[in-house]
Amino acid sequence: MEMNRKNKILIGLGAVAGILLVKLFYIQIINDKYKVDASNNSMVYNYIYPPRGVIYDRNGEILVGNEVCYDISVTPRDVQPFDTLALAAALGIEPDYIRERMAYYRQYRTRIGYQTLSFLKHIPQENYIRFTEEAYRFPGFRAEVRSVRQYPFNAGGNLLGYISEVDADYIKNHPDYRSGDYVGRTGLEAAMEEKLRGVKGYHIYLRDSRNRVQSPYMDGAEDKEAEPGKDVVSTIDAHLQQYGQQLMEGKVGSVVAIEPSTGEILAMVSSPGIDVDVLSDIGRHYSEISRNPRKPMFNRTVMASYPPGSVFKLVNGLIGLQEGTLTPSNRYPCVHGFPYGGNRRLGCHGHASPLDLLSAIATSCNGYFCYVFRNILDNKKYKNTAEALDAWREYVLSFGFGRKLGSDFPSELGGNIPTSAFYDRVYGKGRWRFQTIISLSIGQGEIGATPLQIANLAATMANRGYYYIPHIVKDSDGIEIDPKYKERQYTLVDTAHFHKAVQGMYMAVNGGGSAGGTAFSARIPGLDVCGKTGTAQNPHGKDNSVFICFAPKDDPKIAVAAYVENAGFGATWALPVASLMLEKYLNGEISESRKYLEDRLLTTRFF
Amino acid sequence: MDKTTGSFDRGLGKTVDWWIVACYLMLVLIGWVNIYASIHSTEPASIFDWTARSGKQFVWILTAFVLDILILFVINPRLWEVVSPYMYVVVLFLLVLVIFVSKDVKGSHSWFELGPVKFQPAEISKITTSLLLAAVMSKANFRLSNRRHFLAVAAIIGLPMLAILGESETGSALVYVGFLLVLYREGMSGIWLVQLGMAILLFILTLITDWWVSVAVLFAICAFYYIQFLRHTRRESIHIRRRALFRTLLAFAAGVMMVFATDFIFENVLQDHQRKRIEVLLGLKEDPSGVGYNVRQSMIAIGSGGLAGKGFLQGTQTTYGFVPEQSTDFIFCTVGEEWGFLGCLTVILLYVFLIWRIITDADKSREAFTRIYGYCLASCLMMHLFINIGMTIGLMPVIGIPLPLLSYGGSSLWAFSVMIFIFIALDRQEKKYF
């Protein structure tokens, strides 16, 4: 072809057509982005929200149900001049509120566009009815019926958790949620979100660019009906939970009750907690809750890490027995404590001396357990203290301390059991020995345990050497819990040794005050309660008060741990809380002789 | 009836370029069908419904056919050359007048309203400018290299262009740039086209990168050209080589000035909406609901068509009114959505074939007037094609000009019909004698 100007121009024409066709080929055939966009553009999904699953307690009581609530929404672009006073009267609100909102919509009209916004939430039913009768007078306003959570019992605010509307951040990480969806944020609502939420349905309509719906898409062939959320049966005993909350009112701390034969959590009280009526409208109370210095949102039962105090002596004693560094008949002297180096002494209270293991547990003798722990660490089996400490730690971990238990409850923390590497870092390798870490003997120092772990210890004691991972959801129709919750978790200590320790716990409660038992007021005639007190030093103020117990001794039905912050000696506060829970659960009521304990708890508030 | 043109019986099949007529008819028909599709909602009306745009377009099409027949068989084609100066002056007058008497339609002042009838003189001015350009440049003593002649040509193209810019119809004004192709065909140095291309390249490059990138690219191109020049002119005198170096440096200096003027032009010469459209086009700014909305919706509509399209009246984007101006400037969206890539290919190939036929016929012509007019027509069609379709697929900024023969609207359809049939008539008249 001759390269004259005509042909050059024709080549130019070919180039123009080529550029257009290449770009068309790209956007029509290669790139899928525009196809996706197109379906978003023209189809409007009218979502049908399934009712969220109901949460039941172990006895079939409803803990969380659903309730209808009425909202008013507005599409500012569709609003025509209307009688502000009439609308205010229909909705039962101040006219100024309407004027204020309308001014706001006018100001941001370009940004709002054709969006529909929430105008008013939770209006009473009679106002809803009045509004719907007059709705024709207020084009652009629409009443919406929504279902909200409803709580028949004031039990387990922290435990149940709350749901709230998803925000932009959440949608980014969870693409199957859309704006306007609700999601469980904490507690059971969060843990069981998958089951509770059900499957949203939708009706598809075609719409035009002004968001006006034109007709059902494919005559509804692609529509999907909503699947209701699955109900969840929790292991909680609603009455026990409620009772625990009443006892803990005005105190800071936790109570956890576990059924030892299953690992099912019967009650899980974190105080101060959240009232259930706050849960249903968390948005309005959120700032107030988050400003509260006692952190009611903070679920102490699984998130607070405390030194377990004297209840930990059980663990040390058991390890000593297993390691052979302690025999039940070993007697150690206690002269108001344990002297270690120079004038230092780990103090103890007054009691008979010397003691054997049973009495040492019953009286919670500090000196005795210093010997026990020293012998564990000085065990000739191990090259040095560090190795012995790590062996000790293995035992402790087998009790469920120092690691997450693996409960189905969200945001569980693991607590802390120190390693030799930790002390090497702090003091230098080989530069620490038993005396340096003597606090561990009595459950103090660098040990941190959650109330759930402490309750798990009580359950382990009750089971004489094993536990089930504590969990909060039971098997029910359509929900099968993880099989791991049905497997026994054995500690590294033989069952035979547990009998000794349990005997000590029995003595602590039933040995009588004269024998030095620290927990005699936990005695409940006919129930064979076993218990162990603890008083954990608290660097921030008064000692924390701890008590674990289970009953009946030979066929334990319930194990309870109570941990009351800054309340002093364990027998004074934690003990009555735990033992009243126990009695309430097993007997259904509090015996006359123990009413004084209940009265004292119900009337005492530390804040 | 003139005796030279009135003969229906002599060689009609040989003298009229029926390929052009066929392309014309098919494009008009495709336009009509797609206008119907673009206004079709869930309550379909008849395609002949007078109150709807498709019905009105049907009337425009019928009247355009009448015009076509008049031009082809009634009016003596010689007449166009004779009356072109008068028509040009009248239309130029109207172009200026409309600025002062028209209502403001989205910022532009380009429509005359006579009762129910509206028309846009800018559409007609393409015809009159082409005719006058052909008349002037086909004069026996015309030389493009002659400075006075060149200025005359520049004035013929420039005056209506300025008037249309004054109406704020940037798109229609841009079409006149296409006449550079005609000048090129008639002997203007190709270097001007290269320089225009360079200026656009530098402008875009400066906007999306940095001034030094543009200067570096400019330097590379100038250096490349000069080295090529030296290699091909080894035996030329030192004088020529020195002059070439001087010119290269001059071009480089002009380019650098262009680069540094870019920001000034962008910020101060262009209007706000034009600046925004260019920013969106070049991806400098995201504006999905504002300026970017049209383009985004249009690309979604076209892109969602896929290979074979969603089928006639099945488009969801165009039928439900997502694409604005869908029956006029964005008619191509309906083609893209409902007929897919194959439909787009068909339409574009029809245009290419039409333009190719026009250029070939024009180039073969022994009459300079016919040739120049044919090239004018071809460049107008090419500019419209590229700007309009380029705009719908995000290659060009949003510039409101119609797609010839397809877009809804009487002015545009009439203008292109008249323009094309004048060429067919000129071509036919010549073929009758040779």
Topology:
The complex is a heterodimer of chains A (607) and B (434).
Chain A: H1 5-30, H2 33-42, E1 43-48, E2 55-56, E3 62-74, H3 84-91, H4 95-107, H5 109-112, E4 117-123, H6 125-134, E5 141-150, H7 157-160, E6 163-165, H8 168-173, E7 182-184, H9 187-191, H10 193-196, E8 201-207, E9 213-216, E10 232-233, H11 238-248, E11 253-259, E12 264-271, H12 276-279, H13 282-291, H14 300-303, H15 313-323, E13 337-339, E14 345-347, H16 357-363, H17 366-377, H18 385-398, H19 420-427, H20 451-463, E15 466-467, E16 489-490, H21 495-510, E17 530-536, E18 544-551, E19 558-564, H22 574-587, H23 595-603
Helix pairs in contact in A: 3-4, 11-22, 15-17, 16-21
Chain B: H1 12-15, H2 18-39, H3 53-74, H4 78-101, E1 112-114, E2 117-119, H5 121-137, H6 147-166, H7 170-175, H8 179-185, H9 191-208, H10 211-232, H11 238-269, H12 272-281, H13 291-303, H14 331-364, H15 368-392, H16 410-433
Antiparallel strand pairs in B: 1-2
Helix pairs in contact in B: 2-3, 2-14, 2-16, 3-16, 4-5, 4-6, 5-6, 5-15, 5-16, 8-15, 9-10, 9-11, 10-11, 13-14, 14-15, 15-16
Give a verbal description of the structure.
The complex is a heterodimer of chains A (607) and B (434). Chain A folds into two domains: 62-148, Penicillin-binding protein 2a (Domain 2) (Alpha-Beta Complex); 238-283 and 295-603, Beta-lactamase (3-Layer(aba) Sandwich), CATH 3.40.710. Helices cover 37% and strands 17% of the residues of chain A. Chain A contains 23 helices and 19 strands. In chain A, strands 2, 3, 4, 5 and 10 form a five-stranded mixed sheet that branches. In chain A, β17 and β18 (544-551) form a beta hairpin. The longest helix of chain A is centred in the first third of the chain and has 26 residues, at 5-30. The radius of gyration of chain A is 32 Å and the shape is elongated. Chain B is mostly helical and 434 residues long. Chain B is built from 16 helices and two strands. In chain B, a hairpin with a 2-residue loop joins β1 (112-114) and β2. Chain B is globular and about 75 Å long. The two termini of chain B are 22 Å apart. In chain B, 44% of the residues are buried. The interface between A and B is large, with 37 and 47 residues.
